[in-house]
Amino acid sequence: MNVRNIVDALIEAPVITSFTRIGYAVRARLDAWQPLGEYDLSGRVIVLTGATSGLGKAAAMQLAECGATLVLVGRDADRNEKAVAAIIESSGNPNVTQVAADMGDYEQVKALAYRVLAEHDRLDVLIHNAGALTPDRRTAPDGTEATVASQVIGPFLLTRLLLERLATTPQSRVLTMSSGGMYSSALTVSGLQMSEAEYRGTEQYARAKRAQVVLNEMWAERFGSLGIHFQAMHPGWASTPGVDASLPTFSKIMGPLLRSPEQGADTLVWLAADELPLRSNGGFWLDRRPRSTHKIPRTKSAETLDRRQRLWDWVSKTCGIDPALPDANPRAE
C-alpha cells in the first residue's frame, strides 16, 4: 500500500474526517484532483433528476459550465424553469432544458422517458439524484411509501425505459446519488416500506438508499455487457436546504464541518466526466475513489443472493416492467 492509500484509509476509518469537508480537502490535494472545469462535455446529453436545489443544482451548474446538453428534472415546472434560467445565465450554455416529473409517479416517469427519447438521439449520462427525507410517512399514487417509490422504483423504471438509448451511446453511464446513511441499514425487502406505526424518516431514507446501491450493482451485473457503466456514490455530509429542513439539529451542530453543495456534488460530476469510472462497473464511490458498501458485519451478512433477487423481482413487479423484455420503451398515446 502506497503512502496516498495509507493516508486515505486513515481518513476513511472515522466518519467525522471522511464525510466532512476535512476528507474532501485532504483527498483533493492527496490525489491532485483535476479541476472539474477542465472537462469538456460538449455534445454529451445528460439527464439529471432532483436538479433544482442542493447537490443537484450544484452538479447541474458544473455540468453546464463543462458544455453538456442538460435535461433537468424536478416536480415543479416553474421551479425547474427558474433553475434553467439561472444555470444558462451563469454558465453561458444555452443547451439546458427541463421536464417536470415526480419520480414517485410512474406515469410521469414514463412520460419523462418518452420526452427524452423523442428529443435526443443519444443519452450519455442518466443521473438519479432526486430524493428527500420526510419526517412523516407519505404514499405515492400507487400506494407505495413515497421515499421508496421516488428513490428506488421510479429510478429503476426510468433506467429500464432509457436502457436501449444508453446502450447505443458509447461510454454511457447511469449514476446514482446515494447517502452515507445507508451504512447503518441492512438490505430488507419485506421491511423496505416502513409502516405508519414504526415510521422514522431517517431509517426509511437509509433503507431506500441501501436498496439503491444494491440495485446499482445488479444493473451492472446484468446489463454492463451492453457497454453501460453503472456507478453509485455518496456525497459525504453536505450543507443543503434538504439537510437543514430534515435534520436541523445535525445541521446546526455540524455546520462548520459540512461540505458545500459543490463539494458534495464533486464526485457525481467527476463520475459523469472522467475516464477512470469506465474501467469498472457497479462501484460505490466517495471523493473520486471506490469505497466499500459495508462498514458493519450485520449489513453485509444480510445481503444474501436470495434477498438481492427478491428486491429486483419486487421492484420490477411494482413498477410494472420486466427489464428483460425488449418492448419496454414508452410509446406516445
TrEMBL record:
InterPro entries: KR_dom, NAD(P)-bd_dom_sf, SDR_fam, SDR_member_12. SMART domains: PKS_KR (SM00822). Gene3D superfamilies: NAD(P)-binding Rossmann-like Domain. Residues 44-222 form the Ketoreductase domain. Coiled coil: none annotated. This is Unannotated protein. It comes from freshwater metagenome.
